[in-house]
Amino acid sequence: MSFERIKEKLNILADAAKYDVSCSSSGSNRSNKNKGLGDSTGMGICHTYTEDGRCVSLLKILLTNHCIFDCAYCVTRKSNDIKRAAFKIQEAVDLTINFYRRNYIEGLFLSSGIFKSPDYTMERLIAVAKKLRLEENFNGYIHLKSIPGASDELMYEAGLYADRLSVNIEVPTISGLKLLAPDKKHEDFTKPMLKVKNEILLYKAEKKIIKSTPIYAPAGQSTQMIIGATGESDKDIMYSATHYYKKYNMKRVYYSGYVPVAEDSRLPAIGSQVPMLRENRLYQTDWLLRFYGFNVKEILNDTHPNLDIDVDPKLSWALRNLAEFPIDINTAEPRMLARIPGLGMNSVYKIINARKYRKLSFDHLKKIGVALNRAKYFMICNGNDFTHKDLQAIQIKGLILQNSQGKFRANYSAQLSLFN
Amino acid sequence: MNEAKILIYDGSFNGYLTAVFQAFEQKLSIADIQKEENAQSGLFSDAEIIYTDVIKSKRVWNGIQKKNNTAIKNIYFAFLSETKGIELLLYRYIQKLFSKTEVLHLNFSDDIVLKVSQLAKSVGREKHRMEAFVRFQLTKDDIYFANIEPDFNVLPLISKHFKGRYADQQWLIYDVKRKYGIFYNLKTVEFITLDMDDIHCNKTQKSNVFTDGEYEYQDLWNNYFKSTNIASRVNLKLHTQHVPKRYWKYLSEKKAV
Question: Which ipTM did the prediction report?
Answer without folding.
Answer: 0.89
